[in-house]
Amino acid sequence: MNIIDRRLNPQGKSLANRQRFLRRAKEQVVKAVREASSKRGIQDIENGDKISISTGGVREPTLHRARSGGVRDYVVPGNHEYVEGDTIPRPEEGGGRGREGSPDGEGEDDFRFVLSREEFLDIFLEDLELPDLVKQKVKQSESFSLTRAGYSVSGSPSNLNLVRTMRNSLSRRIALRRPKPDELLELERELADAEARGDDPERLEEMRRHLDHVRLRSRRIPFIDPIDVRYNRFESVPKPIAQAVMFCLMDVSGSMTEHMKDLAKRFFMLLYLFLKKRYRSVDIVFIRHTHEAKEVDEETFFYSTETGGTVVSTALEEMQRVVRERYPENEWNIYAAQASDGDNMSSDNARSAALLRDGILPLCQYFAYIEVAAEHNMGLSALGRETELWRTYKLVQRPDLPLAMRRVRSRREIFPVFRELFARDKVGA
Amino acid sequence: MTAVITRSEGPLYDGADWDYDKIKRVYDAIEHIAQKELGLDVYPNQIEVITAEQMLDAYSSIGMPLMYKHWSFGKHFARDEMLYRKGMRGLAYEIVINSSPCISYIMEENTMTMQTLVIAHAAFGHNHFFKNNQLFQQWTDAHGILDYLEFAKAYISQCEERYGLPAVERVLDAAHAIMPQGVHKYPKKRPLDLMAELKRNRDRQEYQEQTFNDLWRTVPRPAGGRQPSRTVSERKKLLGLPEENLLYFLEKKAPRLEHWQREILRIVRHISQYFYPQKQTKLMNEGCATFVHYTIMNRMFERGMITEGAMLEFLHSHTSVVFQPEFDDPRFSGINPYALGFAMMQDIQRIAESPTEEDRQWFPDLAGSGDGIAAVREAWANYRDESFVLQYLSPALIRKLKLFSVRDDSEDPYLLVENIHNERGYRNLRRLLARQYDLAYLEPDLQIVDVDLAGDRKLILHHRVTNGVLLDEADTKAVLRHIANLWGYEVQLVEVSAVSDAILKEHAVTAPTAMVA
Fold it and tell me: What is the pTM assigned to this prediction?
């Protein structure tokens, strides 16, 4: 008989098959990821998840009999009451036999499986058409460094801590009264003297015995014992990276359509991924506004609708308030992204511009304004009819201010806004 | 049991942790019992310790340690992995491969008792069955299979490099779709010898490489070629029709396939053929392994080689393996092959050793023959599931399991109970249950009957319909599409009643627009 340990064999033998499978099911997987990412929260975007695709492209058909029709015989165990000739009402779907076909005759469920974080992000980012380099940057996990963390009783010889080891050894030797080399020498000398003097043989004998005893003791109690040995211990800790907070501001008045909100959400997701990569902890604050602004949770932010006018300055004020209360600017890196369709009350424009210039931008690392437009509404806004808010912010914009403005009509255009962010990053680094 | 009970000095192991020494000790003890007392005859064993992930890997590549690459394996892996991670399904404790040496996989997280159980179950139970059952002896070559898979894997990855992934994938998809129809059910003139074939194949390739001369390509061929045969019977004979091995026919006769495409069909066909005995002996194979591990574990316990704690742990997992829910139990999903196989083999042992009057009537040769183990060994060697049930299912066991048969006629609004466990029902139940294990009956009877050589080269298949059960429409269409991809021309499938020869239904797909290559 042979026993072979295969546990250390290269892992991921099925990786090639998995890639083949994902490629095969690409179309459905992309669709499922798109749906999943619109349903899931911004902070969950990082986790891989169970997705479910229809079996269409990945069916493995075989020639087999239909599940219904014709005459069949079954032999089953567990008869309690039936005798020959009894009739049993045909079991309902799923009852009794449990193998009846489903009503539409297809009889196959959706295929569910789990995508890893990497795979999920790959497909998610691909949809946004990020350049590969940037994808790598966004996907990179955080780095670790080793720091000293006390001592341990096991480790590699190179990490041996000599001082600790010797200290333990010394205290053990003292505790167990290991004879010191000096004492031994002293005794030997005394014995030699006594022998030379020709002392009383009985006394000599006793001295010899004592000396033997001491020698034995020093042999039995080792100078360094394995239990003395200590090693330096290292722990890997994440590199200290500062914390960041990300403000999501959005106009939720009636003029924002689902499509616009979806664009905004994707932008927020991307920003979150980017921040997540650079900072150890990222908080998100959602502020929505109509003619008044409120801090809300994510669910409400994206999915509930409000009616009312549009006053942008309220959102900026709310943001200022939150920063004042919870995120002091010397402790937090503040990022903000505002999504809007560009409407604002004319009377509020001046106030918004002032707030942005004097109140918000000095606090922020980066302030991104994206103006989302309906996908088909190419004509007017593309031809340069600028919206209220766009004109207002444009007045504020200066090269030295961390303000980026973009118009986004489709998912493909989300990335260009980001390029600026990364370009800044390069200069900063 | 009359075996001499010798008390050993103490248990072979203690506690749940395993190590190689303990496994070695336990293996030796099991080997002694298996070979000396049960008279098992096994291939040399190779036991491999693997992790859960590797187990999932093995699952998805139909249990084989090497396999060519295909997306369907990735699909199965993805599904199994999710089910496992979410705790919806446990993993098997072992996988065993019909090869010589016989490879058994055991998982690292098993306890020592489980490892003992697995060694008895797989390394001796399954192993003995593989080596001694006549189906395996006749159809599979345990010595050559691993080498052949190695060749298959290398060959297919070469093809992928040379002809591109999509082209290879198309052939494999099509071949997989008709894999169940890719077996020879009866021996051909020449028994299949994978080793020799592999060697011949290599030699042939080498010879072709050595004698390749580009000049031959330029030699003009005789115009016209052979005249198409005139009569139907002559044509059928020429093509070897009717043929039920679809893969074989396409490999040999499909007009538009490249050489490498034929080779891939051949690989898939060989793998399908290799697994065909396993499909026919699921009940017996599992029953045999379960019977062996149960007997061995009990003997070890009697001799004090395993502790009481270990025995309880073993009994716990053994009983859950052989648990048979009744038909109205929500857990019921058909007859558990472990349960039925184990029960039948215990029954054979009982009949041989202490028969009742009824047993003497039903099994005059077997009853009271004395050596139960020998009787069971005899059954393992000479039967497959269907014939095994037909031969050995006893009235006592039918009563014990309370078997009954139900007739489901789609014309009637209800199901009819036809037979129950009484004098009138025993023989019918036995016959019906045996038929549930008869692959020839379970799988649709499909044959290639004709090719329209003079016309548009349409391939014609027949499905002989029994009991009015037709083929599944959507899947059949998809498979025919795959067949058409290989054949290169139109394909038609006709469902013919086996009773009246009336045509019940026709499926057809047109010729593929693009070539396979």
Answer: 0.69
